[in-house]
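Fold it.
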Amino acid sequence: MSLQPKHRALFLANAAVLVTHQIDAAYWHEWELFHIPGGNQVNLLLNLPIIALVLYAQSQVARGEGSAALMFYKLMPCLGALTVVIHGLFFALGHEAFVQPVSLGLLVGTAVLSCLQLTALRTRPLR
């Protein structure tokens, strides 16, 4: 399957929202929620491979062809779903992080974009 421009646009939008969420995570001291020893320094080091993976995935999706493009395209909604589920659990446990409007908007945004990404794979363009 060759990825269409709409697929690339959805991927880029979701990637931008998720990377922005990672920036927001620094504000909320997300490493404390996960009980990561080493604080922000370790958190920054952990984000290097994650963001590198997202950037590499973007390069593959931008090419738009081959099994790698499709695999990396599907990776983003999986990361989005994982992010939403984890933060949903934090909310359910009573944590008060990520409650500002834009923080919540980023989580809702990645949920919506992740669903749209997967739905876009099921629809076929009219010929």
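The two ends are 15 Å apart (CA to CA).
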